Amino acid sequence: xxxxxxxxxxxGDTSALNATLKGxxxxxxxxxxxxxxxxxxxxxxxxxxxxxxxxxxLIDENQxxxxxxxxxxxxxxxxxxxxxxxxRTLRIxxxxxxxxxxxxxxxxxxxxxxxxxxxxxxxxxxxxxxPPEGASVDYSRMINYFCPGFPTAxxxxxSYVRDLRTTAxxxxxxxxxxxxxxxxxxxxxxxxxxxxxxxxxxxxxxEPDRLAEAIQKKHAAKGNVIVVVSEWVRDENDELITKSxxxxxxxxxxxxxxNGGGVPEDLRQKLExxxxxxxxxxxxxxxxxxxxITDGAETYTVKKTVQGDTLNLYMGKFDAFGHPQxxxxxxxxxxxxxxxxxxxxxxxxxxVILGYLQRCGSPTPIDRDCALKAGQLAxxxxxxxQINYVAAIRRTSGGLQPELLPLEHVIKRDEAGDVIRRSLDxxxxxxxNYQISGAGIAYFRPIFGDLPKLNLPDxxxxxxxxLLASE
Length: 471
What we know:
By secondary structure, this protein is α/β, with parallel strands linked by helices. It folds into three domains: 4-132 and 361-419, Rossmann fold (3-Layer(aba) Sandwich); 154-235 and 333-356 and 428-448, Rossmann fold; 245-316, no CATH class. The chain is 31% helix and 21% strand. It has twelve helices and 18 strands. The protein has helices at residues 17-31, 77-89, 101-110, 150-171, 186-190, 208-222, 265-273, 329-340, 365-383, 407-410, 438-448, 459-470, and strands spanning 4-9, 34-38, 51-53, 94-99, 118-120, 174-179, 198-200, 225-230, 245-251, 283-286, 290-295, 298-307, 310-316, 349-353, 389-396, 399-406, 429-430, 435-436. The strands form four sheets. The protein has a seven-stranded mixed beta sheet, sandwiched between helices. The protein has a five-stranded antiparallel beta sheet with strand order 9-13-12-11-10, with helices on one face. Helix 1 runs parallel beside helix 9 (365-383). It is elongated. Mean pLDDT is 85; it is low at 246-262 and 304-314.
């Protein structure tokens, strides 16, 4: 029976999205299905969203990004109902959302009202579950071995870290490289393949003194150091290390005054202490657990937590799903290390924020091929009536292959219905030495092969030999 199916891409772009779209379009054409592409993620399925007929000839699987464009759009319950109405009006028989944890959070709620099958994507590699706990690791029991988009992003990070070594060596630099990945350390850990000297993941609290000691030892041994840090590194108080937030504390009595209209004077004074001077036209919009402060063209969000007799607030910019805008931890950490290591010249410390360079460009072959096959599998699921399944990647004796799994086997949800993100399996990380573990190398082996050897010439030893010979 002929079907009309829809597809959308949500959240941040990756290099493998078009490959997934190509797989979906090819299989849809093969089965005689009409494929409708919805533009800009979940915006596309709302009343005023854009859509068009998507055919294989429109899609280049070797082109990064997404032909359908994307957005970080969250849908509340009313909007989910609006989306279902539109899908039914368009006579869509089934929808394939492609995305990470946020896209799947919305999709999982929509799937309770509409036929849905998913394909994962995210450079964060945080959708799925880790192998069962234990001393040994059974990689075949890891659900969704990697998310399409992750291998390419990791390969780009590896390349940048490896290439930075020439500058670090030439100028005796200590370079802090900030990697994406939000609060999952998978991408950061992959930098071991670029021979990062020290790797700081978000699953382990950042300890300045311990990191400084590790840097001092590496610097003494080789004269240059590359430290890769995750963008969502947190301190021992579980506070995000970022330049985009403003921490402060006020008393609980202020909670009653934050009820719309102008900003209370005590809050205004507190903000000004931290350098935020707000005009009299500033307004506050209160929601369940946050206030949005609008001052001129800028809108900030104040989130709250209650501890004892105080109301702890922090102010910054958050996306539609409530995630803080990370960024800048590499600079903050570099400055802190500079103070803790006064014996090393301050000019030696540098930081690099790679940002979008990690998730752009063409996909690697393994990323492209797995994404394309996963897209095909999702269409087959809809054709066979397998509703609420996910096309995930499995490690088998024959290599990495996509497979269909029930949605509840791939993701776990909290009480609010949000997808619980997969953290880095800490068996893959040697926290004591800030390095990848043997189990971590074994995880990456099907994607990148064995950990390459660092083949840098020992220039300083060679120069010493030549100087001695000339005496």
